[in-house]
Amino acid sequence: QVQLQEAGPGLVKPSETLSLTCTVSGGSISGYYWSWIRQPPGKGLEWIGYMYYSGSTNYNPSLKSRVTTLLDTSKNQFSLRLNSVTAADTAVYYCARGLDYADYARIDSWGQGTLVTVSS
Amino acid sequence: SSELTQDPAVSVALGQTVSIACQGDSLRNYFASWYQQKPGQAPILVIYGDNNRPSGIPDRFSVSTSGNTASLTITGAQAEDEADYYCNSRDISGAFNWVFGGGTRVTVL
Questions:
Q1: Could you tell me if A47 lies within 8 Å of chain B, comparing CB atoms?
Q2: What is the 3-state secondary structure (H, E, C) of chain A?
Q3: B49/A contact by beta carbon, under 8 A
Q4: In a 10 Å sphere around its CB, with 0-12 CB exposed, 13-18 middle and 19+ buried, how is residue B35 labelled?
Q5: Model pLDDT, residue B2
Q6: Can you give the pLDDT at residue B92?
Q7: What pLDDT shows up at residue A104?
């Protein structure tokens, strides 16, 4: 069974860049949409974006100008960079594995999540 | 704001049936997937597409779609079903963006 694990700093200063890495174990990178999703404390889920295993990407329009994702197939890792962060970016960040078909998508595996706080 | 709208909270008596609605224009063309999230835990997929459940998800969970509304139904709710439930689908832009509903908290009385 595939497992995903997020890693990165738990505290980022305002205006700086948030960087997280997700390590995938027990499964292949191929064929999936590798996604980032976040959840501010006490609030709902927000899709940040995904990178298909081929390298194509798609991002939430509200975050697109600040988001970059990378995929390292040799290490079975994918990463998120979110620049110019503010307190509004404080959230639990999840990495996840998804599939997207003609008439539905599904996210079938999630990391445990990592809390990132933006504060000086 | 979310392009998928859910009621914030519903309650159900133990053993009874509850439905959670998810409304959005993209649902006219695209099925929703549904996720259960318990406090302090990551979400898990409970149902996707045309009534498909991952292994280990009980068959008391089902979905239906009518027009722009998808509904998750729990038939015979159990105490362990108390959780937040989120729907997920594409947005209406045609750009293959994903979107989540705001979530519905289900309380089992």
A1: yes
A2: CCEEEEECCCEECCCCCEEEEEEEECCCCCCCEEEEEEECCCCCCEEEEEEECCCCEEECCCCHHHEEEEEECCCCEEEEEECCCCHHHCEEEEEEEEEECCCCEEEEEECCCEEEEECC
A3: yes
A4: buried
A5: 59
A6: 78
A7: 86
